[in-house]
Amino acid sequence: PAELQERVLRGEVGGRSEDPPPQPAALRRELAEIRRSGIGVINRRRPAPVVSVAAPVWDAAGRVAAALSIVVPAGGASPRTIEPAVRAAARAVSRGLGAPAAGRPGPSVP
What phi, psi does 2 have (nearest 5°)? Predict the structure, then answer.
């Protein structure tokens, strides 16, 4: 939701990462790319180097109900090789929740 995004950008809500918080402009660009592509990739260096690839899970009303992700050790697999499987699994869960067959109700959901 937009209101949560703004709270995160103002520093009111934060994670437990040791990494510095993202700059608002960079985070907005990253979120826009995730909305466009339908996939999120995070490369973490601490506490252990890992790569996470995630895709949204949609409900019958066309809302994001959850996210499905896989986390692998950095260097273990390229995000590009994992992405199709993550997308397919998220679509399958979405169908189980009654989402449209495409798994996404349109080009972009704010």
Answer: -60, -40
What does the chain come to in residues?
110
Unique residue bearing structure tokens 């994001």: 64
Report residue 16 as tokens: 């437990």
Q: H helices then E strands: how many in the chain?
A: 3, 3
The DSSP call for residue 21 is P
Backbone angles phi, psi at 56, to 5 degrees: -75, 150
**pLDDT tens by residue, the chain, 110 residues:** 778 878 877 777 766 666 676 788 888 898 889 889 999 998 888 888 999 999 999 999 999 999 999 999 998 888 999 999 999 999 999 999 999 875 554 434 33
Q: Which residues neighbour 31 within 8 Å (Cβ) at sequence distance 6 or greater?
A: 5
Task: Spell out a b/e string for 46-78, using b for 16 or more CB atoms within 10 Å of the CB, else e.
Answer: eeeebbbbbbbbbeeeeeebeebbbeeeeeeee
